[in-house]
Design a protein that fits this description.
five-stranded antiparallel beta sheet, Jelly Rolls, 1 helix, mainly beta, about 250 residues, binds magnesium ion
Length: about 250
Amino acid sequence: MFKTKVNFFAILITFNFGISQIKASKTAIWEPVPKKVDAYSFSKAPSDATILFDGKSFSKWVGQYSNKVPKWKINEDGSMTVINGTGGIKTKESYGSVQLHIEWKTNENTENSEEQNRSNSGVFLQQNYEIQILDSYENPTYVNGQAGSVYKQHIPLVNSSKKPGEWQSYDIIFNAPVFENKNLLKPGYFTVFQNGVLIQNHVEIKGTTTNVGSPSYEPHGKLPLVLQDHPKTPVSFRNIWIRKITN
Ligand code: MG
C-alpha cells in the first residue's frame, strides 16, 4: 500500500514537472542567434564604490532564504563558488538604481551538461530582475535565456561570452522601477556590458523575470541583490562592487 502511494506521488511530481517544462518552452525564443564577438577587458572599482565581495568574506551577504551566513565556498584565489543545493545568496543591504560590476566564471567541466544546465546562475537586481549567467560559449539554448539576456525578456545584442573556465565580467546599469500607490509609475531599465561589450542598451523591464508565463510587476521598494544557485554545474564569482545611482 505504502509503495503504491510513493509511486503515485513520484508520477504526480514527474507529470507536474513535465507540464511546467512544456509551459516554459512556450516563452523560449531560438532565433535569430546573437552574433559572436571576442572581448577582453575588466574594470576596477572606482573610489566611491561599495565592495560587495573582496575575496575574503561573506560579510555583505546572507543566504537568500536562510538569512544566515552563505554556505558557498571562498577559494584561495579570492573568488567564491556556488555550492549547489545550499540556495542563492543576497546582499544584506537593499538597493534602488545601481551600477554593478561582477566577474564570473563558468565551469571548465562541460561534460554531461548542456543548454540551461551548463553553469547557470544569474544576477537578480532587486531580487526580481535577472540578467542570465550561463556558459554561452558554443552552447546553444533559447536565445532569450542565454548569457546576458534579461531572462525571457530581452535577447543580448551580441554574444561576447568567453570560453568555459575564463573569467568574464558584467557591468550593469539598473534603473529601478518606480511605483506609486501600488501602481507602476515607471518601468525599470537595464543597460549591460559583457566583457566590455554592450549587450543590452537601455531595455525596458517588463516585470519580474519568470521562466513560465508572461512577466508582470509586483510593487516593491528597495530590495537586495541576489546571486542564483541553479543546478547543476557551479559558477564562480569575484570582484563584485556596486554604486548607488541617485535619481
Ligand atoms: Mg539563471
